[in-house]
Design brief:
alpha+beta; OB fold (Dihydrolipoamide Acetyltransferase, E2P); BirA Bifunctional Protein, domain 2; 2 domains; 8-stranded mixed beta sheet; 5-stranded mixed beta barrel; 14 helices; 19 strands; 31% helix; elongated; binds 4-amino-1,4-dioxobutan-2-aminium adenosine-5'-monophosphate; binds magnesium ion
Length: 446
């Protein structure tokens, strides 16, 4: 009888049975007559023990000289052993037969330390390493949690275009594409189209890659990143915050349910994640500025003082966001930012037009802004005025202004950056490992 082909993740169901596993050689420890092979198959990593006495000589010799990342098929008996290494671990395979599919060339990524640029140049291979494997599995959970939560709460997925004629967010960070005889731009956001779709479906979201030619070389910026953007008719800023805190909590709790093993591979302290439950604290921009200046005054180090001090009207930088977030044990909303630092479409605060009905969500532990949103201007005259003030071409926004002519309603929405969320939940120091193939100021390869 041919043994069943099984996944390493399911080995515990086959204790005492002979099974076949198909995958790649992750690592090998040579003990002469005994070869400890770490085999990975995509679902996990398991130790396969090859014993000279128990194998035909050509097979044992082939295994003994097999280079890292060679592909192979291993058959053997599943044994429970609490000390057996691997993920999920606890079971090993006593090899009775093996077939080598391809003998790999010398693999460039070895267990020793490599520089980050070297690893980035080999990203197509680096994705096989267990840390990267854990991160990208958590990313997949986050994406499915996002979609499931929205689908289950009455939001309709309506796609928005990537090739667009105008700026959606700001004119300074647009990627131009040659579009036949014309110029078009890669979408910075799907929001403006979302607003049109929202008028048809009530509650919608778009989810896709967005593009910004950010010249900033920071650990929080990519030039291509994935954003989910919900947009809701009749929502106020308060409705928006109430929805966002449920949504973000659900995403974090889903990862805690589904990815304990991956979080432990990353050595992520899960205590701060367990605390991510609604409600989240809310502070105004005014209060945030006051808090920062108070912290600056209390700081003993002059450099820290300078980093924290902020004049009313300026946007926050990373040190500001980090310091603000540190004051709370869960994500914190900052609302009513100065109109001048936000996008043209945000509703001014009644009686105080220098601030707008915007809200950013700052993640704990120094991860900064993970969502940005607002109430939108729904009055046509006011929107036209803002478009003119900013110096945008009115004709390009004719269709968007139409939305304010045919049953305009108050509405609100936000965007959540997937990679910032992955960095935060995984506890990563840099955003570059949160996406399979990062695009940054100086990187488009591989
Ligand atoms: O705050 P942003 O620019 O908001 C918008 O684009 C709105 N149109 C969204 C909306 O209301 N529908 O971006 C939203 C989020 C940020 O909070 C951040 O998480 C992420 O997108 N983000 C980036 N992530 C990685 N790299 C970048 N360069 C990013 N820029 C924004
Ligand atoms: Mg923002």
């Amino acid at each position: 009888m041919t043994p069943p082909i099984v996944l390493i993740a399911d080995l515990q169901r086959y204790e005492g049975q002979t099974v076949t596993v198909r995958g790649w050689l992750y690592d090998r420890t040579d003990k002469g007559k005994l070869q400890f092979l770490k085999v990975r198959d995509g679902s996990g990593i398991a130790q396969a023990v090859a014993f000279q006495k128990e194998l035909p000589e050509p097979i044992f010799n082939a295994l003994r000289s097999l280079p890292q990342e060679s592909s192979l098929i291993v058959t053997g008996i599943v044994r429970a052993d609490q000390r057996a290494p691997g993920f999920p671990g606890g079971y090993e395979i006593g090899v009775t037969d093996a077939q080598i599919i391809q003998v790999a060339d010398e693999y460039p990524i070895t267990p020793k330390e490599h520089g980050i640029e070297f690893l980035m140049d080999h990203r197509h291979l680096w994705v096989r390493s267990s840390r990267q494997w854990a991160i990208l599995r958590i990313r997949a959970t986050i994406i499915s949690a996002i979609r499931n939560w929205l689908d289950d709460h009455g939001y309709l997925l309506v796609d928005t275009p990537i090739i667009t004629p105008t700026a959606g967010e700001s004119t300074t960070e647009l990627f131009e594409v040659k579009y036949f005889e014309d110029i078009a731009y890669l979408a910075q956001t799907g929001q403006l189209y979302n607003e049109a779709n929202m008028m048809s479906f009530g509650k919608v979201y778009c989810f896709g890659p967005t593009f910004r030619s950010e010249k900033s070389k920071t650990r929080r910026h990519l030039t291509e990143f994935w954003m989910v953007e919900p947009e809701m008719a009749f929502f106020t800023l308060e409705d928006l915050m109430a929805m966002e805190e449920e949504f973000v909590s659900a995403i974090v709790q889903r990862v805690l349910e589904k990815n304990r093993m991956e979080l432990s591979i990353l050595e992520r302290d899960t205590a701060p994640l367990e605390r991510v439950v609604a409600p989240f604290p809310r502070i105004s921009y005014d209060e945030a500025v006051a808090r920062l200046n108070r912290l600056a005054a209390e700081a003993s180090d002059p450099e820290e003082q300078a980093a924290l001090r902020i004049e009313w009207g300026n946007d926050f930088g990373s040190p500001h966001e980090t310091a603000l977030a540190q004051q709370f044990d869960r994500p914190v909303f900052v609302y009513h930012y100065p109109t001048a630092v936000k996008a043209f479409y945000m509703q001014p605060v009644p009686g105080r037009p220098e601030v707008c009905r915007s809200v950013d969500l700052l993640a704990p532990e120094g991860y900064g802004e993970i969502t940005g949103g607002s109430e939108r201007i729904h009055d046509r005259a006011l929107l036209e005025e803002r478009i003119a003030q900013i110096g945008l071409n009115r004709d390009h926004y004719a269709w968007y202004l139409d939305l304010r002519r045919f049953g305009s309603v108050p509405h609100a929405g936000f965007g959540l950056g997937v990679e910032r969320t992955v960095a935060w939940i995984c506890g990563l120091p840099h955003i570059r490992e949160t996406i399979p193939y990062p695009r940054m100021l100086k990187r488009t390869y591989p």
